[in-house]
Amino acid sequence: MITKWSGESWELVEATRYKNEPGTWMDVTRTVLFDSENSKFQTRYFELAPGGYSSHEQHQHEHCVVVLRGSGRVRLGETWSEIGPNDVIHVGPGVPHQFEAPLETMGILCIVDRVRDPAVPIQNHPTTETSKVC
Question: What integer is the mean pLDDT of 76-99?
Answer without folding.
Answer: 97
